[in-house]
Amino acid sequence: MSLSACGGGDDGASSKTVRVTLANHVWTENIKAALPAFEKQSGLKVEITQLGEDQLSDQYNVKLNAGSSDIDVMMYRPLQEGKLFAKNKYLADLTDQVKAQGWDFSDFQAGPVEATTYEGKPVGVPIITEQEVLYYRKDLLEKAGLSAPPKTLDELKTAAAKIKAADPSVAGFVARTGKSAAVTQFSSFLYSFGGDFVDGGGKSAVGSEAAKQAYAYYGGLIKDSGPANVSTDMGWPEAMAIFTQGKAAFYTEANSLYKNATDPAKSKVSDDVGFAPFPAGPAGSKPYNIPSWALGVNASSENTANAWKFIEWATGKEQTLAQQKSGVPGARTSVWANPEGSSTFPKDLVEAIAASTKDGVGHDRPLVVKVAEAREIVGQPIVDAITGKDAAAAAGTANTAFQKFLDDEAK
Questions:
Q1: Distance between CA 403 and CA 378 in Å, rounded?
Q2: pTM score, two decimals?
Q3: What are the DSSP E strand ranges found in 98-163?
Q4: Residue 158 contacts by C-beta under 8 Å, 6 or more apart in sequence?
């Protein structure tokens, strides 16, 4: 029986059942375990649909497109489908909700909030964050006579070359190399050189001088100091495997994957792994600081008041702290400032994250509707630079293609 027939569901007659669609993730398992307490306290019943990423996308495509009201709360990827969802008006405007007393929207980090905002309005709440940091081998640095990890990209280049020269069987540096997969991790290099994918006027910026230098640097570092016969289709699992097998000194990657490097069951070098802030380029250290996942309210839901009650609880300080203690990095500044909130993370990783959140950029790929297609275009110069082709020429070609893409998308 529907309890929301009287004009839209937020008039006090909305359903006491909140239908929540979540991705397979540790965050989701933690929320499910905590749900009984929320249901008891709120008097609401939460029905969870849990799906893998591909199935989640498929379900959203079908249901949101049809204007279905049988999803109230949805877990989504702000940088992968956020613009598409917001542009198609699938996500409810949460401007009034985020003013909830005691919940404290101002506590959320700027980068993740930027990524869950559309045309100046909040349409989501970040729940899981990622920053790019430098993973490194303490023992190899010591052996090379280096007293500290590199603070700048110039120092990284020098240190990587020195380590590889001393033992060619160990790469000085490893990172993602696949055309699409590398884009997100390349982004921090691009920003630290002073560039971006799109300029302030909405035009392609991948042909700028800063972008050309960033492509040449990233590709050159892998070409000159990377693994021998390096493949150009590596995503994080392949790059991480090289690092955890003891075959690389430095590795730039998302902090969320750190346990792969520090868990003795997964890593041969677990005792020797250190973490440092992303090294500074000509424009400073500008790693991405993004929400990999957020919660939004389906704009077609007839139960938005209770949908918000669930989000308010799931993203509150108490739940965010509990999530972080289990290893899920959140977006609340106060939780990171609380020693309990970082107690399960390596100390040097916490320091690297703190540096990243201060100057972090809120996106790690072009903010467009057709993200996959854009990544293929802007990622091509990475592959070209790794294989020794002219990075500047490749960036110029990509710039023309990406501008056409942007023009087509704006039609």
A1: 11
A2: 0.91
A3: 117-118, 121-122, 125-137
A4: 150
